[in-house]
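Q: Convert this sequence to structure tokens.
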Amino acid sequence: MRKAVFPAAALVAVLAAIGIAQAHTTRAQDASRGTVQLRQTSLGKILVNSAGFTLFDFSRDSRNKDACQSVSGCIFVWPPLVASGKPTAGSGVNGSKLGTIKLSNGKRQVTYYGRPLYLYTGDAHTGETSYVGFSAFGGRWLAVNAKGASVQPKNSSNGAPSANEAPSGKEEPKPREEPGGAW
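A:
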């Protein structure tokens, strides 16, 4: 009888963990109906969604092209900011630089200056920046400022990994050019 209780308890724990992860992902996506705002953080003013969660760009992306969707597991950790219509610009955000791209699942991902925008499912608080500069899925995840430029963690301006970064064991990707450049 004890043997039957342990597998049942383990199954309940696994199902609960999956439910929590799905609820958090759904909350982050539901709170981001394509509205992009600016928020003051420890890294300066950066883009956030309508609920105040940090928006990221992925160093592996190219202009108007989401590379995350082709990397196994990536979109479950870094879901795209999606919009069902035209994205909305909050104060300080250049609305003419907001756009969308069509993903392989048919949804529309919000872009800013041609950079696809993402959320991070691990963010627990609005305006959180602890994952800015994080290396995962073969690239770096950086915040974005009002001019569309990537925002580095304060302690990695020399290109060295910051204390926030997990060691990837891979060579760091080359930095992308600023908006308007040929990337």
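The chain has a mean pLDDT of 77.
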